[in-house]
Design goal:
The chain is an alpha+beta fold. Among the domains are: 106 residues, Pantoate--beta-alanine Ligase, Chain: A,domain 2; 71 residues, Ribonucleotide Reductase Protein R1, domain 1, CATH 1.10.40.60. It has seven helices and seven strands; from the N terminus they run H-E-E-E-H-H-H-H-E-H-H-E-E-E. The strands form two sheets. A five-stranded antiparallel beta sheet has the order 1-2-5-6-7. Strands 3-4 form a two-stranded parallel sheet. Helix 2 packs across helix 3 and helix 2 packs across helix 6. The protein starts with a helix and ends with a strand. The relative contact order is 0.15.
């Protein structure tokens, strides 16, 4: 009886082993298929983002070309208005801001209220905004005398920091984050409105963005500022916005602008992949690469 049962038992064991082998092979095949699909998606994403990035770079170069046109009636206006066009399969949107319309953090110390207003409009309490404005001016002035609400080496040490104020102008906009009292969240909010390249005590209102305009006209409502921006951006190329009135009733004059521009170029593909290039350029002269402009700042923005 025992001998007769062995073949059946062996067949049962072999059947179970075959099932295990089939299961393992199925798992392995599924894993390989998942890995292949993931790698395909990764390579596709890399290809799409690379294609979008170069399309955005093409948009940046087109912006420079348009800014260099000798006829002001054909030249693009650097007041933040969007310019949209197609490039192959990509849709590109470009916004150019003349840095003369931003708040120069190296020069605005002569108008400390401008900095204070900028911080207050982003939710900072008045006393804290005044302290931060004074701390920024203490950072760039060459002496060790503390302003009424400012910060010199003693205040930095009391805050547990291993450094003190630079006592020299900002070399980059991002250096502002080292000033005592500045937070990353506040810096990210005000970054589009500040520069180190204009050398002006106050922004050129004709090219200023909403944040800079709000700091210039602190009593204006956000709706008034937005209406002013819309009026300025509706002006045709070559026109002076002399008929546009600021919230305080004074005429807005654009002036001649500067030679330094912040350019944001966003490229989007039909499948939704996109990327953003954010650069600051200075026109004139010839760069080391033989270009008629110099790149002062370059940042690859978000991709999706």
């Amino acid at each position: 009886m025992i001998g007769r049962g062995r073949p059946g038992n062996e067949r049962g064991v072999a059947f179970v082993l075959v099932l295990w082998v089939i299961a393992m092979l199925s798992i392995m095949l599924g894993s390989f298929a998942l890995i292949a699909r993931t790698e395909n998606m990764q390579s596709r994403h890399l290809f799409d983002t690379t294609q979008a990035r170069y399309a955005a770079e093409a948009g940046l170069n087109l912006a420079i070309f348009e800014l260099r046109k000798p006829d002001p009636l054909d030249r693009w206006i650097a007041d933040g208005r969007p310019y949209r066009f197609g490039f192959g399969d990509a849709e590109i949107e470009i916004a150019i801001t003349d840095d003369s319309g931003k708040i120069d953090i190296n020069a605005a110390g002569n108008n400390g209220d401008l900095l204070t207003n900028l911080f207050v409009t982003h939710g900072v309490a008045l006393d804290q905004a005044q302290a931060l404005s004074d701390a920024m001016q203490d950072w760039i002035d060459p002496d060790d005398d503390t302003r009424p609400n400012g910060a010199e080496i003693a205040q930095y040490k009391a805050a547990g920091l291993s450094y003190g104020p630079k006592n020299a102008p900002f070399d980059t906009v991002s250096e502002l984050q080292q000033v005592l009292g500045m937070t990353y969240d506040l810096y990210r909010k005000i970054e589009p409105a500040i520069t180190i390249y204009s050398g002006r005590n106050a922004p050129n209102a004709g090219f200023a963005n909403p944040d800079a305009l709000q700091a210039m006209y602190p009593d204006a409502t956000p709706e008034q500022i937005q209406a002013l921006v819309q009026q300025l951006q509706s002006q045709p190329p070559g026109a002076q916005p002399g008929g546009v009135l600021a919230p305080d009733g004074t005429p807005v004059m654009a002036g001649g602008g500067g030679l330094t521009y912040s350019v944001k170029s966003r490229a989007k593909l039909p499948n939704g992949a996109s990327t953003v290039l954010d650069a600051t350029i200075r026109m004139g002269g010839v760069s080391a690469a033989g270009r008629p402009f110099v790149i002062l700042r370059w940042r690859d923005g978000e991709t999706s």
